[in-house]
Amino acid sequence: MQKLTIAIDGPAGSGKSSLARRVASMLGYLYMDSGAMYRAVALKALRRRVPLNDEQALSTIARETHVELKRPSPEQEAAGAKNCVFLDGVEVTDEIRTEEVAQAASRLATIQEVREVLVAEQQRAGAGGGIVMEGRDIGTVVFPDAELKIFLDASPEVRAQRRWKEHQEKGDKISLQEVVEEVRERDRRDRERKVSPLVRAADAVLVDNTAMGIDETARIIVMLVKERDATAAKAGRTA
Ligand code: CDP
Ligand code: CDP
Protein backbone atom coordinates (compact mmCIF):
# COMPACT_ATOMS: atom_id res chain seq x y z
CA MET A 1 0.00 0.00 0.00
CA GLN A 2 1.17 3.50 -0.88
CA LYS A 3 1.89 5.71 2.15
CA LEU A 4 -0.44 8.68 2.08
CA THR A 5 -0.42 12.09 3.68
CA ILE A 6 -3.53 12.56 5.82
CA ALA A 7 -4.53 16.06 6.94
CA ILE A 8 -7.01 16.51 9.79
CA ASP A 9 -8.24 20.01 10.59
CA GLY A 10 -10.96 21.26 12.87
CA PRO A 11 -11.81 23.46 15.86
CA ALA A 12 -10.71 22.98 19.49
CA GLY A 13 -11.93 19.81 21.16
CA SER A 14 -13.28 18.30 17.95
CA GLY A 15 -11.17 15.19 18.59
CA LYS A 16 -8.35 15.79 16.10
CA SER A 17 -5.46 14.61 18.27
CA SER A 18 -7.23 11.49 19.51
CA LEU A 19 -8.38 10.59 16.01
CA ALA A 20 -5.07 11.36 14.30
CA ARG A 21 -3.16 9.32 16.85
CA ARG A 22 -5.53 6.35 16.53
CA VAL A 23 -5.50 6.42 12.72
CA ALA A 24 -1.68 6.69 12.65
CA SER A 25 -1.34 3.69 14.93
CA MET A 26 -3.85 1.64 12.88
CA LEU A 27 -1.93 2.39 9.66
CA GLY A 28 1.62 2.41 11.06
CA TYR A 29 1.98 6.08 10.10
CA LEU A 30 3.69 8.95 11.91
CA TYR A 31 1.46 11.23 13.93
CA MET A 32 2.06 14.94 14.32
CA ASP A 33 0.20 17.49 16.43
CA SER A 34 0.98 20.84 14.81
CA GLY A 35 -0.91 22.71 17.55
CA ALA A 36 1.67 21.52 20.07
CA MET A 37 4.26 23.58 18.20
CA TYR A 38 2.18 26.77 18.47
CA ARG A 39 1.58 25.98 22.15
CA ALA A 40 5.30 25.44 22.85
CA VAL A 41 6.30 28.76 21.29
CA ALA A 42 3.46 30.44 23.21
CA LEU A 43 4.71 28.94 26.48
CA LYS A 44 8.16 30.39 25.85
CA ALA A 45 6.66 33.82 25.10
CA LEU A 46 4.58 33.71 28.30
CA ARG A 47 7.58 32.68 30.38
CA ARG A 48 9.57 35.59 28.95
CA ARG A 49 6.63 37.92 29.50
CA VAL A 50 6.66 39.04 25.88
CA PRO A 51 3.50 41.07 25.15
CA LEU A 52 1.25 39.01 22.90
CA ASN A 53 0.77 41.97 20.57
CA ASP A 54 4.51 42.39 19.93
CA GLU A 55 4.64 40.72 16.53
CA GLN A 56 8.33 41.34 15.97
CA ALA A 57 9.42 39.86 19.30
CA LEU A 58 7.12 36.86 18.85
CA SER A 59 8.45 36.20 15.35
CA THR A 60 12.00 36.32 16.68
CA ILE A 61 11.09 33.82 19.41
CA ALA A 62 9.52 31.49 16.82
CA ARG A 63 12.69 31.61 14.69
CA GLU A 64 14.98 30.99 17.65
CA THR A 65 12.98 28.20 19.24
CA HIS A 66 13.48 24.52 18.73
CA VAL A 67 10.34 22.46 19.22
CA GLU A 68 10.62 18.71 19.02
CA LEU A 69 7.73 16.26 19.04
CA LYS A 70 8.55 12.72 20.11
CA ARG A 71 6.52 9.57 20.33
CA PRO A 72 5.47 8.90 23.95
CA SER A 73 6.60 5.75 25.76
CA PRO A 74 3.98 2.97 26.01
CA GLU A 75 3.35 4.03 29.66
CA GLN A 76 2.86 7.68 28.71
CA GLU A 77 0.59 6.60 25.86
CA ALA A 78 -1.51 4.52 28.23
CA ALA A 79 -1.85 7.61 30.44
CA GLY A 80 -3.24 9.57 27.48
CA ALA A 81 -0.10 11.43 26.24
CA LYS A 82 -0.21 12.05 22.48
CA ASN A 83 3.12 13.58 21.52
CA CYS A 84 5.90 14.34 23.99
CA VAL A 85 6.82 17.96 23.43
CA PHE A 86 10.29 19.40 23.99
CA LEU A 87 10.96 23.12 24.05
CA ASP A 88 14.64 23.90 23.43
CA GLY A 89 15.45 20.41 24.68
CA VAL A 90 13.32 20.51 27.85
CA GLU A 91 10.10 18.52 28.11
CA VAL A 92 6.93 20.66 28.34
CA THR A 93 4.31 18.01 27.46
CA ASP A 94 2.04 18.89 30.41
CA GLU A 95 2.90 22.60 30.73
CA ILE A 96 1.50 23.44 27.29
CA ARG A 97 -1.96 21.98 28.09
CA THR A 98 -3.40 24.96 29.96
CA GLU A 99 -6.08 27.36 28.77
CA GLU A 100 -3.65 30.26 29.21
CA VAL A 101 -1.20 28.65 26.79
CA ALA A 102 -4.02 27.74 24.38
CA GLN A 103 -5.17 31.37 24.25
CA ALA A 104 -1.61 32.66 23.80
CA ALA A 105 -1.03 30.08 21.04
CA SER A 106 -4.09 31.24 19.14
CA ARG A 107 -2.93 34.86 19.46
CA LEU A 108 0.55 34.25 18.11
CA ALA A 109 -0.92 31.96 15.43
CA THR A 110 -2.37 35.11 13.82
CA ILE A 111 1.15 36.34 12.98
CA GLN A 112 2.32 35.52 9.46
CA GLU A 113 6.07 35.25 10.29
CA VAL A 114 5.39 32.87 13.18
CA ARG A 115 3.28 30.66 10.91
CA GLU A 116 5.93 30.65 8.17
CA VAL A 117 8.54 29.27 10.58
CA LEU A 118 6.28 26.54 11.96
CA VAL A 119 4.73 25.58 8.62
CA ALA A 120 8.22 25.06 7.14
CA GLU A 121 9.05 22.71 10.05
CA GLN A 122 5.81 20.80 9.56
CA GLN A 123 6.41 20.43 5.82
CA ARG A 124 9.90 19.08 6.49
CA ALA A 125 8.58 16.58 9.02
CA GLY A 126 5.88 15.27 6.69
CA ALA A 127 7.86 15.34 3.45
CA GLY A 128 8.10 11.54 3.16
CA GLY A 129 4.35 10.84 3.45
CA GLY A 130 2.96 8.12 5.73
CA ILE A 131 1.91 10.79 8.21
CA VAL A 132 -1.27 11.95 9.90
CA MET A 133 -0.92 15.62 10.76
CA GLU A 134 -3.59 17.60 12.57
CA GLY A 135 -4.18 21.30 13.14
CA ARG A 136 -6.07 24.18 11.56
CA ASP A 137 -4.39 24.72 8.17
CA ILE A 138 -2.93 21.32 7.30
CA GLY A 139 -5.21 20.62 4.34
CA THR A 140 -5.25 24.23 3.16
CA VAL A 141 -1.66 25.44 3.62
CA VAL A 142 0.78 22.85 5.00
CA PHE A 143 -0.17 19.94 2.72
CA PRO A 144 -2.60 21.27 0.10
CA ASP A 145 -1.89 18.13 -1.97
CA ALA A 146 -2.60 15.65 0.85
CA GLU A 147 -4.28 12.54 -0.53
CA LEU A 148 -6.89 12.56 2.22
CA LYS A 149 -8.22 15.62 4.03
CA ILE A 150 -10.66 15.48 6.91
CA PHE A 151 -12.46 18.43 8.45
CA LEU A 152 -13.44 17.18 11.87
CA ASP A 153 -16.22 18.92 13.74
CA ALA A 154 -18.53 18.49 16.73
CA SER A 155 -21.05 20.80 18.39
CA PRO A 156 -19.50 23.63 20.46
CA GLU A 157 -21.21 22.30 23.62
CA VAL A 158 -19.79 18.80 23.18
CA ARG A 159 -16.32 20.15 22.37
CA ALA A 160 -16.26 22.31 25.49
CA GLN A 161 -17.58 19.40 27.59
CA ARG A 162 -14.78 17.15 26.32
CA ARG A 163 -12.12 19.76 27.18
CA TRP A 164 -13.64 20.40 30.60
CA LYS A 165 -13.68 16.68 31.37
CA GLU A 166 -9.95 16.54 30.63
CA HIS A 167 -9.35 19.45 33.03
CA GLN A 168 -11.48 17.72 35.69
CA GLU A 169 -9.44 14.54 35.36
CA LYS A 170 -6.21 16.53 35.84
CA GLY A 171 -7.68 18.33 38.87
CA ASP A 172 -7.55 21.77 37.18
CA LYS A 173 -9.76 24.38 38.82
CA ILE A 174 -11.78 25.67 35.91
CA SER A 175 -15.55 25.79 35.45
CA LEU A 176 -17.42 24.45 32.45
CA GLN A 177 -18.58 28.00 31.69
CA GLU A 178 -14.97 29.22 31.58
CA VAL A 179 -14.03 26.45 29.17
CA VAL A 180 -17.08 27.23 26.99
CA GLU A 181 -15.92 30.87 26.80
CA GLU A 182 -12.30 29.91 26.12
CA VAL A 183 -13.24 27.56 23.29
CA ARG A 184 -15.67 30.11 21.81
CA GLU A 185 -13.04 32.88 21.83
CA ARG A 186 -10.37 30.67 20.29
CA ASP A 187 -12.76 29.37 17.61
CA ARG A 188 -13.63 32.90 16.65
CA ARG A 189 -10.00 34.04 16.48
CA ASP A 190 -8.91 30.96 14.54
CA ARG A 191 -11.73 31.27 12.00
CA GLU A 192 -11.52 35.05 11.54
CA ARG A 193 -7.77 35.65 11.32
CA LYS A 194 -6.41 36.91 8.01
CA VAL A 195 -3.53 34.44 7.70
CA SER A 196 -4.45 30.77 7.20
CA PRO A 197 -7.82 30.88 8.96
CA LEU A 198 -9.53 27.68 10.02
CA VAL A 199 -11.67 26.74 7.01
CA ARG A 200 -12.67 23.48 5.45
CA ALA A 201 -10.59 22.84 2.32
CA ALA A 202 -12.85 22.43 -0.71
CA ASP A 203 -11.74 18.80 -1.07
CA ALA A 204 -11.91 17.87 2.63
CA VAL A 205 -14.37 15.27 3.86
CA LEU A 206 -16.55 16.75 6.62
CA VAL A 207 -16.87 14.38 9.56
CA ASP A 208 -19.10 15.40 12.47
CA ASN A 209 -18.27 13.25 15.47
CA THR A 210 -20.61 14.94 17.99
CA ALA A 211 -22.28 11.59 18.58
CA MET A 212 -19.40 9.30 17.65
CA GLY A 213 -16.58 7.76 19.66
CA ILE A 214 -12.92 7.86 18.68
CA ASP A 215 -12.79 4.21 17.54
CA GLU A 216 -15.82 4.53 15.33
CA THR A 217 -14.51 7.74 13.75
CA ALA A 218 -11.06 6.18 13.22
CA ARG A 219 -12.60 3.19 11.42
CA ILE A 220 -14.35 5.58 9.02
CA ILE A 221 -11.07 7.34 8.25
CA VAL A 222 -9.23 4.06 7.67
CA MET A 223 -12.04 3.03 5.28
CA LEU A 224 -11.52 6.29 3.39
CA VAL A 225 -7.77 5.61 3.24
CA LYS A 226 -8.38 2.17 1.76
CA GLU A 227 -10.78 3.64 -0.76
CA ARG A 228 -8.19 6.27 -1.83
CA ASP A 229 -5.59 3.56 -2.07
CA ALA A 230 -7.77 1.34 -4.26
CA THR A 231 -8.53 4.28 -6.54
CA ALA A 232 -4.80 5.12 -6.83
CA ALA A 233 -3.96 1.46 -7.58
CA LYS A 234 -6.66 1.31 -10.27
CA ALA A 235 -5.42 4.55 -11.84
CA GLY A 236 -1.89 3.08 -11.78
CA ARG A 237 -3.06 -0.08 -13.65
CA THR A 238 -4.88 1.85 -16.34
CA ALA A 239 -2.09 4.42 -16.83
O1 CDP B 1 -7.24 17.73 19.34
P1 CDP B 1 -8.60 18.27 19.66
O2 CDP B 1 -8.57 19.49 20.49
O3 CDP B 1 -9.43 18.45 18.42
O4 CDP B 1 -9.37 17.15 20.50
P2 CDP B 1 -8.78 15.93 21.38
O5 CDP B 1 -7.73 16.45 22.28
O6 CDP B 1 -8.46 14.79 20.48
O7 CDP B 1 -10.08 15.51 22.18
C1 CDP B 1 -10.54 16.24 23.31
C2 CDP B 1 -11.16 15.25 24.28
O8 CDP B 1 -12.35 14.71 23.72
C3 CDP B 1 -10.25 14.06 24.59
O9 CDP B 1 -10.30 13.81 25.98
C4 CDP B 1 -10.88 12.91 23.85
O10 CDP B 1 -10.72 11.67 24.51
C5 CDP B 1 -12.35 13.30 23.81
N1 CDP B 1 -13.07 12.77 22.64
C6 CDP B 1 -14.26 12.09 22.81
O11 CDP B 1 -14.69 11.90 23.94
N2 CDP B 1 -14.94 11.60 21.73
C7 CDP B 1 -14.49 11.79 20.48
N3 CDP B 1 -15.17 11.31 19.44
C8 CDP B 1 -13.29 12.52 20.28
C9 CDP B 1 -12.59 13.00 21.38
O1 CDP C 1 -6.06 20.97 20.98
P1 CDP C 1 -6.78 22.20 20.50
O2 CDP C 1 -7.61 21.91 19.31
O3 CDP C 1 -7.52 22.90 21.58
O4 CDP C 1 -5.67 23.26 20.07
P2 CDP C 1 -4.28 22.99 19.37
O5 CDP C 1 -4.45 22.13 18.18
O6 CDP C 1 -3.32 22.54 20.39
O7 CDP C 1 -3.90 24.45 18.84
C1 CDP C 1 -3.71 25.56 19.71
C2 CDP C 1 -3.85 26.82 18.87
O8 CDP C 1 -2.78 26.86 17.92
C3 CDP C 1 -5.13 26.90 18.04
O9 CDP C 1 -6.22 27.50 18.73
C4 CDP C 1 -4.69 27.71 16.83
O10 CDP C 1 -4.80 29.09 17.07
C5 CDP C 1 -3.22 27.38 16.69
N1 CDP C 1 -2.96 26.45 15.58
C6 CDP C 1 -2.89 26.96 14.30
O11 CDP C 1 -3.14 28.16 14.10
N2 CDP C 1 -2.57 26.16 13.26
C7 CDP C 1 -2.34 24.87 13.44
N3 CDP C 1 -2.00 24.11 12.39
C8 CDP C 1 -2.43 24.31 14.73
C9 CDP C 1 -2.75 25.13 15.78
Layout of helices and strands:
Blueprint: E1 5-9, H1 16-27, E2 30-33, H2 34-47, H3 55-64, E3 67-70, H4 74-78, E4 84-87, E5 90-91, H5 99-108, H6 112-125, E6 131-135, H7 138-142, E7 148-153, H8 156-170, H9 176-192, E8 205-208, H10 214-238
This protein binds cytidine-5'-diphosphate (2 copies).
Question: How would you describe the overall organization of this protein?
Answer:
- Helix content is 53%, strand content 14%.
- The protein is an alpha/beta fold and 239 residues long.
- It folds into 2 domains: 1-29 and 130-227, P-loop containing nucleotide triphosphate hydrolases (Rossmann fold), CATH 3.40.50; 34-128, P-loop containing nucleotide triphosphate hydrolases (Rossmann fold, 3-Layer(aba) Sandwich).
- The strands form 2 sheets. A 5-stranded parallel beta sheet has the order 2-6-1-7-8. It has a 3-stranded antiparallel beta sheet with strand order 3-4-5, with helices on one face.
- Helix 3 (55-64) runs parallel beside helix 6 (112-125) and helix 8 packs across helix 9 (176-192).
- The longest helix has 25 residues, at 214-238.
- It is globular, with a radius of gyration of 18 Å.
- The model has no long low-confidence stretch (mean pLDDT 94).
- The structure holds cytidine-5'-diphosphate (CDP) (2 copies).
